[in-house]
Amino acid sequence: AALALGAATLAAVAETLGAVVAGRLADDPARGPLLLLALLLLGAALLDTTGRTVFSGVVGRAEGVLRADLLAAALHQPLPRLDEQAVGEVIDRVDDDPWQVATLLRRVGWEVGRAGLRSVAAWIVAGLTWWPAWIAFPLVAVLVVGATRRLAPVVAARKVEEEVAWSEHSAQLEEAVAGRDDVRTSLGQAHVVRQYAVRSAELLRRVGATCRASAAVTLRSSLLVHALLAAVAVGGVAAVDAEVLGVAGLVTLFVLVSTFVGQLAQVANNLPELQEGLGALSRIRSLMGAPAEPAGGLPVPPGRVGLQLRGLTFGYEGSFSLRGITLDVPAGTTVALVGRSGAGKTTLVRLLSRAVEPPPGTVFVGGQDVVATDLADLRRAVGVVTQRTELLAATLAENVTLFADVPRERVGEALAALGLDAWVGSLPQGLDTRLGVGGTTLSAGEEQLVAFARLLVRDVAVVVLDEATARMDPRTEALVTRATERLLAGRTGVVIAHRLSTTRRADAVAVLDAGVLVQHGPRERLAREAGPFRELLRASGTGGTDAPAPAPSVAAAHLATTTGTA
């Protein structure tokens, strides 16, 4: 940075001295001054190019560091806050804003800095050449700032509105592309095109408003600086006529004033870009100042661990809440959570891994408060399988290891332990089969098999499983069932059961209703005793199968709606 600044300063000095030499040439043309002028201008160009190149390298390295810091800040936000942000918004903050600021610094920042150095050098030499320049240059600069100061916030506001319009325009197109199958089959393409046209028209309107505000800034600044140029020309001729100023001085002064006018106009013309850059900086500061997940804490106790909930009360602002839940899951046993949609099952399991922060003293793993436990260590010990498993555009082996340094043999052993040898063998390239975009597409059940293998490779102590609700073919369902049993063997498990038949593989059942634990105990006992679980079994069919009962009671039918999340 110091080298770039030094090169820019020397270039400004060389160019200003060139104006003085040019004035001398006008008065007395000679080979020596002409060669000196050529050397000064060539040296200024070389120094400017060197400084710009060095400065671009500095900005590029700073941009890389900023991207890394923004990525860390974005990904270390608490999950509820991250869930509220659209993917496109996070990408814009991490990728677009640093690029915007870096581009602005490389182009506009360098130009404005260079303009400032050259303007100061021109002002000093012009003042030494003709004393009124000491007053005229700062006066015009103040007038330009005063004339454009009120319009600058307008340009900034219009830029923000334009950015919002661009985001809405892109979001609408993204939604249309993501839902293209539903859009076409429901004959909604005409509506999508119409909405796209509406957003495009609004975008063009806001772009036009920004351009008009920017043009007003340019017009005002140009009128003032060119008025200075005209005044110098008229005043300089009069000074030469009165023999106050010589021809060499007039030429030097005119060249210097032209340089000052050009640099000042350039700064004024770049005001919209500067305002846009300030907006990006504001968004960057906002993300860098976002709260992060807590760091530090105690390690998870070694060996098999149990789960305890003690008087857990938790709620989302203005809506759902869990109330006074007390539950004990001994180490190595599995509990099945059942209840209608919105009962609180998903909220409860999110609290176990601190995807949502629980109140202190309410959730314990291995007898230790999860709030006092190191978050990274907790998530290494508590493995979560959601209904939707995210697959990477990578091989099956890489999707299992998530690019961690895990031996290939261990991946194969984990899949074999889950009884998935035949399934892996049926894939085109086995462990090397590419999944995701451009690769093999898996069903929802098969995606969960990959998630099971991830947990087995990590050797988690606790398994939290949100059973897939998507209908599976018999072969896939058999694979998922067998893999689930093998994954839970010897581990503490919490399963959100959307099919009551799943509860047969659990040691205990916990029934939730409207955020309250209404029944808990061994499945066999709950199935015999009168209560909510028995009503659920009766409503879903005899013996807990998935076949519908002939005529369930209203209360049982209400509780039997077991799919969904809280």
TrEMBL record:
The keyword Cytoplasm does not apply. GO terms for molecular function: ABC-type transporter activity; ATP binding; ATP hydrolysis activity; ATPase-coupled lipid transmembrane transporter activity. GO terms for cellular component: plasma membrane. It is a multi-pass membrane protein. The keyword Nucleotide-binding applies. Residues 1-276 form the ABC transmembrane type-1 domain. The chain crosses the membrane at residues 34-51, 120-145, 223-240. It is found in: Cell membrane. InterPro entries: AAA+_ATPase, ABC1_TM_dom, ABC1_TM_sf, ABC_transporter-like_ATP-bd, P-loop_NTPase, Type_1_exporter. Residues 307-539 form the ABC transporter domain. SMART domains: AAA (SM00382). Coiled coil: none annotated. Keywords: ATP-binding, Membrane, Nucleotide-binding, Transmembrane, Transmembrane helix. It holds the Pfam family ABC_membrane. This is Heterodimeric efflux ABC transporter, permease/ATP-binding subunit 1 / Heterodimeric efflux ABC transporter, permease/ATP-binding subunit 2. It comes from uncultured Quadrisphaera sp. The lineage of its organism: Bacteria, Bacillati, Actinomycetota, Actinomycetes, Kineosporiales.
